[in-house]
Amino acid sequence: MTIIKDGRLFQFILLLIGSGVLYEIIYQKSYAPYLSFILTKVQGQESLNESLFVTQGKHAFTSKKTTEHKKVNKKTLEDILNHDNGIIFLETTDTMQPQPLVLCAIESAARVYQDRPVVFFMKGFRDVDLEDNEKHTRYFPTLSSRENIYIFPLVMDEILKGTPLHSWYNKSNPEKERYWIHTLADSCRLALIWKYGGLYMDTDIITFRPVPCKNFLAGQHSKYSSNGIFGFSSNHNFTWACMESFVQNYNGGVWGFQGPTLFTRILKQLCDLPDFEDIKDISCGNISFLHPQRFYPIGYGGWTQFYEVWDIFPTFNDSYAVHLWNYMNQKERRTMVPGSNTLVDHLYKNHCPSTYEAIQRNESLYL
């Protein structure tokens, strides 16, 4: 009888323990991973993932709840670019495999501006259905390790909405435009910087060090401004004036008319620009007009120097970044060759080492 009683007592204890575990599973959810494991064995992993539980950390959500949970925590463009401190890059073609120089430019900026978001807008992402925009970086392994890089679809209608450029865009006919891809880029950079503030850079600019001023234009040479890199606070009068003039004086048949020529025209309306002297920047109200050495130490006429072997590499001590004039390279299509001892080899190695090493190991830059 004692043995029977002891057996019943043992069964009763097991029942209590089992009830406690079941309580935790159903009400407290602290044993959700175990429930997931059991259900997986019974119903199969595919069925479980589709219709029952998705385990995340210590909590389990139904697939519907998980989607809702992710949407709540997903970072929007406004969340990322709401402090006037974003670094913006654009790709206005449909390519999903940007050139290595593009990846190098983005990586170098992310390394220098580690406390600022670096956002790459890609037109080719418009049809990609991904829940988290920032996860787009997984397509580019050399960028995915940088936590401050975000990739978003380039949706023209959304970007230009609320600016003078919106009506121009809706009335435009791309088939009749000679430089449409470049004109799109000219319009987008203005709208984005006006809306969100921050710094815009072309995708053939390799960054060395931070630009110390907030509102600035880059001198390409005396009395002539580039639009390949510039920075402004949001809702700045200069960017708004540029957008108005962009539409009112539109001439898409002339190269650069909506870009550097536009910037130069508006800047000259604000100030009587003197010639640059030594390596000194010029002030125009609250805008700094930066000396060509800051970004263009090698002019467009000397662009091939980047792909030549140097006995002694330039220090670029007076430069914040360097523009590689990739537009000039469209016909020759010169590339960086690891170990070639060219200037571009030196720049990749020092300022975008992840991209450099991937090319050196002959790894794919895209997934």
From TrEMBL:
Lipid biosynthesis among keywords:
no
Q: Where are the transmembrane segments?
A: 9-27
Give the way it sits in the membrane: Single-pass type II membrane protein
- What broad class describes the main subcellular location of this protein? Golgi
Q: Name one GO cellular component term.
A: Golgi membrane
The record's Pfam families line, in alphabetical order, gives: Gb3_synth, Gly_transf_sug
Q: Where in the cell is it found?
A: Golgi apparatus membrane
Provide one Gene Ontology biological process annotation.
protein O-linked glycosylation
Q: Which GO terms describe its molecular function?
A: acetylglucosaminyltransferase activity
Q: Does the keyword Transmembrane apply?
A: yes
| Domain Alpha 1,4-glycosyltransferase residues, every copy | 232-358
**Could you tell me the keywords of this UniProt record?**
Glycosyltransferase, Golgi apparatus, Membrane, Transferase, Transmembrane, Transmembrane helix
What family does the entry list? Belongs to the glycosyltransferase 32 family.
Protein name, please?
Answer: Alpha 1,4-glycosyltransferase domain-containing protein
Record organism: Eleutherodactylus coqui (Puerto Rican coqui)
